[in-house]
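MFS transporter (Sphingobium limneticum), 450 aa
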Amino acid sequence: MASYSASGTVSVRPYVTVDNVSARPSDSNWTARQILVVATCFILNMLDGMDVLILSYIAPALSSDWQVSPESLGVVFSAGLAGMAAGGLLIAPLADRFGRRKLILASLIMMAVAMFASGIATSIPELIASRFVVGIGIGTVLASMAALTAEYAPEKHRTFAVGFLQAGYPVGATITGFVVASHVTTHGWQAMLLGAAFLCAAAIPLVWLLLPESIAFLLSRQPKGALQKANKLLASIGQPQLDTLPPLAQREARNAGVRGLLSEGRAPSTILLWLAITFSFMTLYFVISWIPKLAVEAGLPAKDAIYAGAIYNVGAFIGTSSIGLVAMRFDLRRLILVYMALAAAALTIFGSVAMPLAATLGTAFLIGVFVQGGFNGCYPLAASLYPPEARGTGIGWAMGVGRIGAVIGPMLGGFLLAAKVSLPVIFGIFAVPVVLAGLCASLIRLPKAA
């Protein structure tokens, strides 16, 4: 039975051990295959950032074109987030049974089709339905990519790799923000959605060619040709090859599926992780859904407001990348708490202090650094908490349960704006959940290094 410590270091157990040979990445050296896996997942996460955030960037044009109220727009935002919850809870755990690569490919196809449908939608109900399906694909891909990156990264750099993967999300969102700001007036918001659909479709052959299957999946589930495929992948990451597959009876069934999230003393930490992500999502998706419109409310012209959303995502990239690097030397859980406390301060300043354009954009940048950086620390935290046979399920359920907050945040923001609540009060309300998220993360207990 695993032992736990309140200050335990981040540790991930070997995937499968056969005759003292561990099917896991080397401890420190990166191979070309490992770099390729992380880079491919980074690109996929850029697409996820584009697919989620594009709606907030086109929101002003959509509202003007269709005369959409803030309440209805909040429902459209939340439809995609509800789909992400469904994907994380119901579909992502299937990666532990059928393979991460297959699930990522299926999800990409789903996203491309649904994004195209959203681009040709003619009513709010059609847009809500298509955004829900897009969300299912995104929620599935996010969990599967994080689990796959955790498995292939060298153990010493696993926290950094999973954190860096998440930095693709704000990069995609930032590029999307600048593209939309420059072209939405000329080409219309529907063209922006159709362009996003094309990019999703273009990524399908990239994943087919470059993204390998999980070694842990091959050795534990043992599909046809598993030994040959596993040995080829082991060689590509500098690991010894195996003579035979491990007996199926050696699989740690007690750690598989949802049961693995609550076994071996993980139940309290699992609940804390779910709470941390729920609180984080509540503020995170309020900010990323509404920051362009809130910037308009704060006095910025519409084009500058879109740039504020893009600048936020530049900060999100810096925050996500930095927390992974710093966590190589300091306790990740304490770092999340620090980031979230600073996020609350930046939110309060943005909502309550009248500032010139440069200062407003600078504060939006800091909100991105600390809100997104602190939240994305939860991905490597989840990857470290769960064993490989439950990692896809663990990350999927954590993000899926957390989407409760993601659904509440934008809807609450829409209702508060419709009720003409002042900006200082709105931002004060959403500063509270990030502090609670940091506190929950700091209390999580991780397995001791084996």
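DSSP finds 17 helices and four strands in the chain. Confidence is low (pLDDT under 50) at residues 1-23. ok done for today
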